[in-house]
Amino acid sequence: MDKLTELEQRIANIEARNSRVQMDKAWEGSYTRKVLLILFTYVSISLYLRFIIGIEPWLNAIVPALGFLLSTLTLPMFKRLWVNKFYKTRC
Fold it and tell me: Is the model more confident about 16 or about 48?
């Protein structure tokens, strides 16, 4: 009976880990995360340009934020290409 209890605990641990992994994957691809990262990029670059460089940053800070936005939009495409070309050949 002790062995059965141990197996049940191991299965419960694996299911809990899988649940956390699924949640992390969902967060990584969520629009909320992308919007927050764009906003944080914009604000941090704006503050840097304003207080460190000493220029009016509000328009100039859009460039890095848009760069980040473009990277988040294009990286899934490159990931698919990589998976199809390189990863499948390993399996």
Answer: 16
